[in-house]
Amino acid sequence: MRIGMIGLGRMGANMVRRLVKGGHECVAYDRKPATVAALAAEGAQGANSLAELVRVLPAPRAVWIMVPAAIVDPVIGELRPLLTKGDVLIDGGNSNYRDDIRRADELKDAGIRYLDVGTSGGVLGLEQGFCLMIGGEPDAVALLEPALATLAPGGRMPAAARGGAASGAAPGRAASTAAAALGYLHCGPPGAGHFVKMIHNGIEYGLLQAYAEGYEILHASQDFALHLDKIAKLWNHGSVVRSWLNELAERAFSRDDQLTAIRGYVEDSGEGRWTVEEAMRLDVPAPVITLSLLARFRSRQEESFGAKVIAALRNEFGGHAVQTK
Prior knowledge:
The chain is α/β, with parallel strands linked by helices. The protein has helices spanning about 10-20, 35-40, 50-55, 70-80, 95-110, 125-130, 140-150, 160, 175-180, 190-220, 230-235, 245-255, 270-280, 285-300, 305-320; strands spanning about 1-5, 25-30, 45, 60-65, 90, 115-120, 130-135, 185-190. It has an eight-stranded mixed sheet, with helices on both faces. Strand 1 (about 1-5), helix 1 (about 10-20) and strand 2 (about 25-30) form a beta-alpha-beta unit. The chain is globular, with a radius of gyration of 23 Å.
């Protein structure tokens, strides 16, 4: 199929490459002309503006947006007067699912269909494929299914996508199960895709924190001189804690067992916060995810004033020694 891609960062660029390798025609746009030129050299068709991107796409158009959540609305604002009834807008970034519900409703009057596609796979998605969590109307999902099947792990195209996929019929249980096995799933109406991705990222916070704490205890051992790269490699062979994340830990430790070149500053992009907020709204206890989010905040402090307060109070009530600069 022919599809437009807006935003050619680490994820967007690799998605274009994977689609091109899968035989699709990609029209690519980014505010950085050099980035567009680089992908044009790899087989994509470069566009110098959003207007040009829309103009060269056949109706009904499929336009995929891969930009930070903060600028999705401005991009949609520029695109909306260029699009026509039946076109499909896809937000593949990490928007808040409530924004997706609003956008789908706002675009509905113009006949523009909206999909929210939570996209996981990181920079390795080019080779391994992307896990895609989709919210929106079934007919829009069906129109996009050939591209979804290529982007997902395996890069295969299911029979439904090869023939009559744009019929608008809702997928049956068997078709949905097959798609999920390929690495993409129509999760529900607008907002459902990014809701599932939000919880996915919340779980990721907890997993990362558990690995971090375990490896820090190993690293701090005064009784044994342990090789973290070898331990990670061992755990990836049959242990209960083996995972893709631990494979990445093995790779990182193999380059630098002490991680000496990395500063312990951990950013968060919003989904962990939203997951905790949703847990509180639903009265669902989520202590692991919540504490992993708070640990990220702690990582950004050169020196914690709160820790200073605790040290001072311990000294005041118990005479416990404090360390001075």
